[in-house]
Design a protein that fits this description.
The protein is an alpha+beta fold and 107 residues long. 51% of the residues lie in helices and 17% in strands. The protein has 2 helices and 3 strands. It has a 3-stranded antiparallel beta sheet.
Length: 107
């Protein structure tokens, strides 16, 4: 069994690294797209929307519903990419730490 003091030190180091990672995620911008790139949505690593770009060729009054669907799809694409980026960073951070299935940090 590991020394309790050593485990506490590791927990403090992990907490410090997690705070640093959260700051880095806030600075990351990831773009998702739909409609073959005609609609793009840019999110931060904390899922805050920063930008929406729409190709002018698809802006037609009768196609508003299609445009709305494309925006939602682009957001979904960007969100999935951010979540994958977060998972990758978390994996790097936790290294050999065996967390229970479904447990996500930060708590």
């Amino acid at each position: 069994m590991k020394n309790l003091g050593q485990m506490m030190k590791q927990a403090q180091q992990l907490q410090s690294k997690m705070a640093e990672m959260q700051e880095q995620l806030a600075a990351v911008e990831i773009t998702g797209s739909s409609g073959g790139g005609m609609v793009t949505v840019t999110l931060t690593g904390k899922l805050e929307m920063r930008k929406v770009a729409i190709d002018p060729s698809i802006v037609e009054p009768g196609e508003l519903e299609v445009l709305e669907d494309l925006i939602l799809a682009a957001y979904g694409d960007a969100k999935a990419k951010v979540e994958a980026h977060q998972a990758e960073r978390m994996s790097e951070l936790t290294g050999g730490l065996n967390l229970p299935a479904g447990m996500q940090l930060p708590f």
